[in-house]
Design goal:
heterodimer, A: 114 residues, mainly beta, 6-stranded mixed beta sheet, 4-stranded antiparallel beta sheet, 12 strands, B: 114 residues, 7-stranded mixed beta sheet, 11 strands, 0% helix, 50% strand
């Protein structure tokens, strides 16, 4: 079985400052990794994913995450955050590609301070 | 192209009652997954349906059951409700053949059990 750990339940950051949201996973087999974002009163939306190939993946709104197999991590970063980035961020892992059954972390609430 | 829609958005039940939650998947998607998100927790996988058959189940008791219809819409049924069943229930659809790894989530049905 696999598991996901998001150590930071809440992260307050000043606007235009950089941020890193940490995610570590545990699995005995190869994994596929995802970051989902949940804006207030909305459903979850895929932010970015690692399936194979380059270990650095990027989203269209400036977030990036790097798959580090040796450290079993998939941390999410953004060099400069905006008020609109206020949301809950969930890291998730899957071991069966094509019929995703995701195991989620407990989430990190990102609060942007003006 | 319509997204994933869920109904009802909110409902209140008492212990021992039964509830049915409904989900219309995104147009063209043939796979539906259900997740339970308790307050302050990440979503937990309940089960998945592919072409009207259950295709994997998480660690939930048999009183959680589901259906998928020929139009790929789905229902989640919970019998003998318990207080701990209070949560946000999320439906997610995907198209298995595309191999994109992405789930499309609805906004959820918030169930309160008194």
């Amino acid at each position: 079985a696999q598991s996901v750990t998001q150590l930071d339940s809440q992260v307050p950051v000043f606007e235009e400052a950089p941020v890193e949201l940490r995610c570590n996973y545990s699995s005995s087999v190869s994994v596929y990794l995802f970051w989902y974002v949940q804006y207030p009163n909305q459903g979850l939306q895929l932010l970015l994913k690692y399936l194979s190939g380059s270990t650095l993946v990027e989203s269209i709104n400036g977030f990036e995450a790097e798959f580090n197999k040796s450290q079993t991590s998939f941390h999410l970063r953004k060099p400069s955050v905006h008020i609109s980035d206020t949301a809950e961020y969930f890291c998730a892992v899957s071991t069966n590609f094509g019929n995703e059954k995701l195991t989620f972390g407990t989430g990190t609430r990102l609060t942007i301070i003006p | 192209e319509t997204g994933v829609t869920q109904s009802p958005t909110h409902l209140i039940k008492t212990r021992g009652q039964q509830v049915t939650l409904r989900c219309s998947s995104q147009s063209g998607h043939n796979t539906v997954s259900w997740y339970q998100q308790a307050l302050g927790q990440g979503p937990q996988f309940i089960f998945q349906y592919y072409r009207e058959e259950e295709n994997g189940r998480g660690n939930f008791p048999p009183r959680f059951s589901g259906l998928q219809f020929p139009n790929y819409s789905s229902e989640l049924n919970v019998n003998a409700l318990e207080l701990d069943d209070s949560a946000l229930y999320l439906c997610a659809s995907s198209l298995t053949s595309t191999n994109t790894g992405e789930l499309f989530f609805g906004e959820g049905s918030r169930l309160t059990v008194l």
